[in-house]
Amino acid sequence: MSAADRVGLGWRDALAASTYVHLDSIDVVEVILDDYFEASARQLRALRSLGKEVPVLGHGVALGLASVSAVATSRVERLAKVVNALEPQIWSEHLAFVRSGTYEIGHLAAPPRTSSTIEGAVANVETVRRIVGTLPALENIATLIDPPASTMSEPAWVTHIMAGTGSKLLLDLHNLYANAVNFGHDPFEYLRAFPLNRVQVVHISGGMWIELESTRRLLDDHVHDVPDIVFSMLAWLAERCPQPLTVILERDGHYPEFDALLRQLRRAREALASGRARHSWEAHELAAV
Amino acid sequence: MSSQQFETFLARLYADREFRERFLEAPRQIAAEAGLGEDEQRAALEIDQPGLLMAARSYEFKRAGRRSRRRLLRLPWRGV
User: Fold this and answer.
1) Average confidence (pLDDT) over A27-39
2) Cβ-based burial of B16 (10 A; exposed 0-12, middle 13-18, buried ≥19)
3) Residues whose CB falls within 8 Å of the CB of residue A16, separated by 6 or more in sequence, listed in order
4) Which of A117, A145, A221 is nearest residue B72 as measured by Cβ atoms?
5) Which residue of A has its CA nearest to B41?
6) N or C, where is chain B less crowded by C-beta within 10 Å?
């Protein structure tokens, strides 16, 4: 892996003590910003002190930026308060809609991939930039349903939003893998179609296969180990992306022994190193020709 | 295409079980009653139904804020 690549873990209360103890093996942690919306000034100060121990990223989960509806400024202001208290090196949000009208979906949903939702996302990201003061990196989401009324592919839709916002991409490899296998694409060809020059942060996680009425799909659930193919995709990515990558392992429950999480972090480092080595070897070979 | 009305229609399909069941019983009627445009009605009729059911139950599970594997497996799909 390159000197500037980093590998870290999502900050979770259940893992906090072990995370602290193993900071020699963890380059960076990612904090869920929404978890601190109701935090007191004292709690926010404690959160900020975490940043003195280890580099911190912030991650928002419920703004619903990829929507034809304007994001509520009150929500953005709440998030801005936490971002300003935490001062993360990078913060991010999802390319998803989470509510519309009076209906709260309760999680990240893929909107129709159309020019309208591209325009909506670009306008919403600009609102967020104005209020928070910095641009978020934007994350691709997993979906179990092929978003109805879409007029373009997911990679094309993401590419247009990246171009319109100027944001970096938080590339979630398990989300990408799930969408590829759920909707009939080769995962590596699907990955190749994303705007890889915009990738700044990478998420890795796991999921489970589910079946309903003979339809089988991969659910991204963050409660299973990272599958081998995601590490292969990470190596593939590291081979093709010269820019530094920050890789975050997301685990949201059914926590294994902490050693098992550390093993997955080591595998991520190995994948980065193998991709970087292949890149260097190919560059060397080309120079020799 | 992709109006706010269509997004609200989707959000309701994902979040409101009774509305979703009525839609699956009579998709043409419910899409028309929702005031969707012609293209949006067509998109609603062509919806990925297994995906809709899986996604809706997944969102329901998230709203309930529970993440145990046992509860995941109790959803109407089968873990494989």
Assistant:
1) 96
2) middle
3) none
4) A221
5) A149
6) C
**Residues on chain A touching B77 (C-beta within 8 angstroms):** 210-212
The string of pLDDT tens digits covering residues A86-121 is 999 999 999 999 999 999 999 999 999 999 999 999
- Beta carbons of B80 and A211 less than 8 Å apart: yes
Residue A214, number of CB atoms within 10 A of its CB = 6
pLDDT surpasses 80 at A285: no
Average pLDDT of chain A is 95
Is the pLDDT reported for residue B67 higher than 50? no
Interface membership of A167 toward B (CB under 8 Å): no
**Structure-token pair, residue B46:** 């062509």
Residue A30 bridge partners (DSSP): A10, A57
Angstrom distance (rounded) from CA A204 to CA A226: 7
Strand order in the sheet with A215-220: A215-220, A207-212, B78-79
CA-nearest residue to A215 within chain B is B50
3-state helix, strand, coil in chain B (%, to 5): 70, 0, 25
Domains and CATH numbers, chain A: 6-288 (3.20.20.150)
Give the residue extent of every domain in chain B. Answer: 4-74
Extract the tokens encoding B31.
């899409």
Over pLDDT 70: what percentage of chain A?
97
